[in-house]
Amino acid sequence: MKELEGISPKTLTDTLASLQKEGFVGREAFAEIPPRVEYYLTNDGKELRDAILPLLQWTMKRENFSRESCSSHCTRKPHHH
Q1: What are residue 40's DSSP bridge partners?
Q2: What is the DSSP-derived secondary structure letter of residue 31?
């Protein structure tokens, strides 16, 4: 939620549910107060990320995006779990 500025909680939840259904992300719920849920990339999700990042970087370069016009999460690889 912190990384995706401006996204509504419902849109984020719906998107994560779709990605989970397709097998790209996994979900782990923790029995804490307040309840906590973490999402992580599955192996398929990691393969998709690795395949699509070069395309996104090529598109940004081709369209002359400056580094400042795209937040840091566009170009960095997410942490592995």
Answers
A1: 26
A2: -
Which contacts of 44-51 are long-range, i.e. CB under 8 A and separated by 24 or more positions?
45/19, 46/80, 48/24, 49/77, 49/78
Q: What share of the chain is helix, strand, coil (3-state, %, to 5)?
A: 50, 15, 35
Q: Is residue 79 part of a domain?
A: no
Count of domains observed in the chain? 1
Whether 68 is covered by a domain: the verdict is yes
Tokens of 4: 């995706």
CA-based nearest residue to 42, from 25, 59, 57: 25
CA-based nearest residue to 42, from 60, 64, 27, 62: 27
pLDDT tens by residue, 31-79? 999 999 999 999 999 999 999 999 999 988 887 765 555 555 555 555 5
